[in-house]
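Hi F.,

I've been meaning to write this up properly since the lab meeting, where we talked about keeping a consistent format for the predictions we share between groups. The idea is simple: the sequence comes first, exactly as it goes in, then the structure tokens exactly as they come out, then a line or two of notes. No screenshots and no reformatting. I'm using this chain as the first example so we have something concrete to point to.
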Amino acid sequence: MKSKYAMLLVSVALLALVALNFAVAIASDNMAISSQNTGVVLKNKGDSFTVSITFQNTGSSDDSWTVNVVFEGDWTWKGTAKALTLNANEKKTLVWTGTVPNNVPTSSIARLVVYYDDGYKALDWWIHVVPNSVLSVQASSVT
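Output, unedited:
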């Protein structure tokens, strides 16, 4: 019976240690990212799109980052890297514009990822490439 309690105590201690380590890892990341909603955006080949992301320095000192956005998946599109300097608790929105490549497969999908210095965050935004053409029946006959 004592060995069961000892195992339970060891398990709880390990769980607490993992939780503490996770909390410290999250606390050391001083930049918050908000992409204002999530979802799948339907686009045709060659369509333009705009990416708008709000960043916040959640730390207690001023800092600078190099940030960029990339759509990754069945196809890839990479934005232009931007310098971002924020005071403590300051927020700033950066905007990128791009075009869905003309050579991507129809029905393909790519996810938005933001890269900053030595980190990255996959956001809950996807572009789904839909057909540019629509087939409709114009006439028919049976004889």
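Notes:
Residues 6-28 have pLDDT under 50 and may be disordered.
Residues 1 and 110 are 54 Å apart (CA to CA).

If this format works for you, I'll send the rest the same way.

G.
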